[in-house]
Design a protein that fits this description.
By secondary structure, the protein is α+β, with helices and mostly antiparallel strands. The protein has one domain: Electron Transport, Fmn-binding Protein, Chain A (Pnp Oxidase, Chain A). It has 5 helices and 9 strands, in the order αββββαββαααβββ. Strands 1, 2, 3, 4, 5, 6, 7, 8 and 9 form a 9-stranded antiparallel beta sheet that branches.
Length: 197
Amino acid sequence: MIEHDNDPFALFAQWMAEAEKSEPNDPNAMALATVGPDGMPSVRMVLLKGFDPNGFVFYTNLESRKGEQLRAHPKAALCLHWKSLRRSARVEGTTSLVSHAEADAYYASRPRSSRIGAWASRQSRPLAGRFELERRVAEYTAKFGLGEIPRPPFWSGFRIEPLRIEFWKDGAFRLHDRLVFRRATPTDSWTIEHLFP
């Protein structure tokens, strides 16, 4: 059985720390599922950039497909799978935008080329060809020169406030361990149970 101290964030932090030591690439890569205006689910890979008892944070262009979906339907699910450890963690919950101060701080920590890229990419919209993207990168590189690059008004982060967190650990003969933390609202206490595999 998965050992825990009744705190899903402490367990997640432990598993993430172990993944950072064993995963060859991007231990913070996660599949993010959102809901489109037609009710269809949509999933893609993004990077987890922070987590604490308030939730799990990632950043994106707010005008991207996922940004528009999350602003229209503020619910999401994510899944991190650590193949080297034969473990995964799943989260479901409500979403909200991070504060401007939080988004500014993270944006300022990004490499300069990534900050230019945030301005240049019209994420999820049609692209005529690679030259169009390269032209936009050159345009914004010239615009900002060696000066500061402010965070674009259309770029920020989302926090998933979990209502359900499930931990999965591979077991022999497919008799896996599954541990679920649930709550009705983000301010409620967690209920904890083990599930059949």
